[in-house]
Design brief:
- With about 240 residues, this protein is an alpha+beta fold.
- Helices cover about 20% and strands about 25% of the residues.
- Strands 5, 6, 7, 8, 9, 10, 11, 12 and 13 form a nine-stranded mixed β-sheet that branches.
- A hairpin with a 2-residue loop joins strand 11 and strand 12.
- Helix 1 crosses helix 2.
- Bound molecules: uracil.
- Uracil binds next to helix 6.
């Protein structure tokens, strides 16, 4: 692939601006500045530097973020900054979206990608991928609340009950709950329908992909293609 196309595919702007970056001497491959936008390179395990910052060529973006509280999952946020402001602009430029949404006050695991099939696989309720949450609740948990969440609760405005894939009390005010759908405010509404109230919500896992404990709030990391199997996904 030509260097100009490589940069363009990785989110460094239009064809013209990528040519300019290269001709201005801002781009190097393995330490050697390349001034020719038409020079061709294999993209396999390709590392390149732009303005001294090293990038790896990636066919697709797969990212896991530890979403902090106080950020909206929207490109046009209403009341809080956007989670997209926590990502490099090159990733936004290449069309990276979040896979499903978390409320502004929810923390935890949030995936981003520019692979539409991956986003669909993650959010489609038909794939039955467990989204695992820890919910801190206001009132002491009652066995009948846990039972209701397991057997199904009717959400306000819905006709059919929704049930948790699993639901277990960790302590009197902390609940571990997994769901496969992603209805609007689903966990908060389910817990309200069971007669309690969510005070804090954190997503700790999706499928068997668990949020790294060492990843601080607001930070993200690349997810390698072989890790996607934990989400039941194989890139085409
Ligand atoms: N359910 C909710 O109520 N909020 C979230 O952010 C995610 C799931």
């Amino acid at each position: 692939m030509t260097l100009e196309k490589i940069l363009q595919s990785q989110g460094f702007g239009s064809r013209k601006s990528c040519r300019t970056l290269i001709r201005d001497g801002c781009v190097s491959i393995q330490g050697n500045t390349c001034l020719d936008p038409d020079a061709a390179f294999s993209t396999e395990n390709l590392f390149f530097e732009v303005d001294g910052e090293t990038w790896r060529y990636r066919r697709h973006v797969y990212i896991a973020m530890h979403k902090p509280s106080g950020f909206e999952c929207s490109h046009q946020p209403q009341h809080h900054p956007s989670v997209f402001s926590l990502l490099p602009p090159q990733l936004i430029q290449r069309g990276t979206q979040c896979a499903g949404r978390l409320d502004q006050d929810t923390t935890g695991l949030l995936f981003f990608s520019d692979d539409g099939a991956f986003i669909h696989a993650l959010i489609s309720p038909r794939k039955h991928l467990a989204k695992v949450y820890e919910a801190q609740v206001r009132h002491e948990l009652q066995p009948k609340q846990i039972e209701a969440l397991r057997s199904g609760v009717l959400l306000h405005g819905e006709k059919t009950p929704v049930m948790a894939l699993s639901c277990n009390a960790i302590d009197e005010h902390l609940l571990n709950l997994a769901i496969s759908e992603g209805k609007y405010h689903q966990v908060k509404r389910m817990i309200a329908a069971a007669g309690n109230r969510v005070e804090k919500l954190h997503r700790c896992a999706i499928g068997s992909f668990t949020l790294d404990e060492t990843l601080p709030e607001g930070e993200w990391r690349w997810v390698e293609e072989d890790e996607l199997a934990k989400l039941g996904y194989t890139p085409a």
